[in-house]
Amino acid sequence: MTTSPTRLWFLDWVRILAFFVLIAYHVGMYYVTWDWHVKSPFASHTIEPLMLLSSPWRLGLLFLVSGVASSLMLARTGAGRFLRQRSARLLLPLIFGMLVIVPPQAYFEVVEKVAYQGGYGNFMQLYLGRYHGFCRGTDCLIMPTWNHLWFVAYLWVYTLMLGALVMALGPRFDLLAARIGALLTGWKIIVLPVAVLAIARMALLSRFPTTHALVDDWFNHATYLFLFLLGAMLARTPQFWPRLEALRWHGLGMAAAGWAALTIYYALPDDLVSAQVQIPLMHAQRIVYCLFAWSAIVAVLGFAHRHLNRDSANRRYLAQAVFPVYIVHQTLIVVMAHAIKPAKLAPPVEGLVLVVLTVCLSFAVADIVRRSRVLGPLFGIHPGTRTSNCAVAGASTQPTPATM
């Protein structure tokens, strides 16, 4: 039988820092050529290589950390109580977010993309009425939508699956976790997860491109559910985490090389590669993509275990604030980007303004809701309850947010 660790402070810090990266990433989405809710008139390929620095691994890292946190909480509270708590803390913010937080994103999207002339009140009638007539060709906006809150919906489903798995396996879950922990040593820490991720990417990505619609997103499920369950298993094997610390520089080096290779690949003109080598080159790119993603996760966790495995008042505050910040940040970016567009600021200045205002306003919202017994549950915070986050395996008297 494995023993759960008492402290994994560094995973809280990883989760916190990942969401700061997410704010910068979503501001960046305003300036790249990739489709997003609103777009800058200066959108170009310029910063896309910088966006690639985090896009392959950030969400996978969050699902893995969420798996660790969920597993530790489940071990402490039991499956029934765990599932009730997780459902309340994930579903209520998801529903509230879809009805209140997300609609402004969809409103400004149709204002910019299809020149919608109606007011927000009229738009909300269409939004709640499941209107599907906002289209550009065959691309139609599905409403209501969860937009960036898809992560919460997926996390809830994966949580249910983990609870069912633990109830079905009983003590055998810990035995399986121990075997996986014993298997992942040395070079196998890199090779085995990369092999699973690469097989999923090569087999499913072309057939099931990303939708974030839950019911048809099979490639993402194969990736994110695997990482979530892997985290749940590794939560029961505390001897695993120091191994990542020993591999932190190796992981960083492989991630850097992977980023460089992918940057070159995406910059190649379409007509430069002959048809005979396109498919082999695509599969090679997908393997490199997975190597980059997992190596970056190893590096982040390894450096965090080395340098951030400690508690502080800042950790306790940020661990509680980060979920409300996540809920509101993208709506703030979309609304502010649309509002300040007429000022025609230079993109570097405008981007910095958006980052600063998003961080400040997001934390202002977090400070308000964490003090309110009415608003707190709508943003995943239940003040006064005895819960814990991923850093503490035992009971905690600190009020904490929904595990992410």
From TrEMBL:
The chain crosses the membrane at residues 12-32, 59-78, 90-108, 151-170, 182-206, 218-235, 247-266, 286-305, 317-340, 352-369. Residues 10-366 form the Acyltransferase domain. The keyword Chaperone does not apply. InterPro entries: Acyl_transf_3_dom, Glucan_succinyl_AcylTrfase. It holds the Pfam family Acyl_transf_3. Keywords: Acyltransferase, Membrane, Transferase, Transmembrane, Transmembrane helix. This is Acyltransferase family protein. GO terms for molecular function: acyltransferase activity. The keyword Calcium does not apply.
